[in-house]
From TrEMBL:
<dbReference type="InterPro" id="IPR050248">
    <property type="entry name" value="Polysacc_deacetylase_ArnD"/>
</dbReference>
<dbReference type="InterPro" id="IPR002509">
    <property type="entry name" value="NODB_dom"/>
</dbReference>
<feature type="domain" description="NodB homology">
    <location>
        <begin position="75"/>
        <end position="256"/>
    </location>
</feature>
<dbReference type="InterPro" id="IPR011330">
    <property type="entry name" value="Glyco_hydro/deAcase_b/a-brl"/>
</dbReference>
<protein>
    <submittedName>
        <fullName>Polysaccharide deacetylase family protein</fullName>
    </submittedName>
</protein>
<dbReference type="Pfam" id="PF01522">
    <property type="entry name" value="Polysacc_deac_1"/>
</dbReference>
<dbReference type="InterPro" id="IPR006311">
    <property type="entry name" value="TAT_signal"/>
</dbReference>
């Protein structure tokens, strides 16, 4: 090998060594930056943490089931309505469901239940109630204590007004965080999301069109998300509810509550 070649070889080795050392320095700097940032983040007991402190967790059964849909073994579908009750629309939904003998699951906001107890008292026979937080805050932004206290407060309000303790929980916006999971587990909830959402803004002033869209997309085991309060555009879905019900029945679907959908061998419940 020539002296010139040996020189280039030494320079290449030197460059490689500097790259390795530089990479280590950068890696160490990045790691230090990460720790500097996250040391100040309330991970333990905060929104990200699914554990609370170093003591006994006290999480009920110690397990949490999260579901988006039910088994696809039969042509069953569950209608769910969030954010109520309220006097503007909840009675309309209950009237439609009663007229068509359709059970549904209502994920209720505790503060709304307290404020509008008369809307649902005596009107929930055949239906199911679930917890949807106290004030519809984003629970994924709360720490473990706050998330649990919010759910507990709503749980107690729903139990007092409706006469039954909720067994299901749906987080506002579908947002999950460790503290949300921890709080739900402490209350022995089954956490229910959804597999199909009503999309009212896509069908302004077209209740029939919206109903057709939902009917076309339902599959066995679908959990449908709707709302019985909110912006006026949501009335498109509620006004099209009879078409939705009739359309799904014409395709052989039976309406059930979420718990019936998820519980094998449970007979469908109908509103009398």
């Amino acid at each position: 090998m020539t002296e010139h070649a040996r020189g280039w070889g030494r320079r290449a080795l030197l460059r490689r060594g500097l790259l390795v050392v530089g990479g280590a320095v950068i890696g160490a700097g990045t790691s230090e930056a990460w720790w500097s940032t996250h040391r100040r983040t309330p991970i333990a007991g905060g929104p990200a943490s699914a554990t609370y402190g170093n003591g006994r967790q006290g999480v009920g059964s110690g397990a949490l089931e999260v579901v988006w849909s039910g088994p696809a073994t039969g042509r069953l579908v569950a209608l769910t309505f969030d954010d109520g009750p309220a006097p503007q629309w909840t009675p309309m939904v209950l009237d439609t469901l009663a007229r068509h003998r359709v059970p549904a699951t209502f994920f209720m906001v505790g503060e709304q239940v307290r404020r509008h107890a008369e809307v649902v008292q005596g009107r929930l026979t055949g239906h199911e109630v679930g917890n949807h937080s106290w004030q519809h805050r984003d629970l994924a932004e709360l720490d473990a204590v706050e998330a649990y206290d919010d759910l507990r407060r709503s749980h107690d309000a729903i139990a007092e007004v409706t006469g039954r303790s909720p067994l299901l929980f749906r987080p506002p916006y579908g947002h999950l965080g460790g503290a949300v999971l921890h709080g739900a587990t402490r209350l022995d909830y089954r956490l229910v999301l959804w597999s199909l959402q009503m999309v009212e803004r896509e069908f302004p002033d077209d209740p029939a069109g919206h109903a057709q869209r939902i009917v076309a997309r339902v599959r066995p085991g679908t959990i449908v998300l709707g709302h019985d309060v909110g912006a006026r555009r949501r009335l498109v879905a509620l006004r099209g509810l009879p078409d939705m019900i009739n359309g799904l029945r014409s395709r052989g679907y039976t309406f059930v509550t979420v718990s019936t959908l998820l519980g094998a061998g449970v007979a469908p419940t109908v509103t009398r």
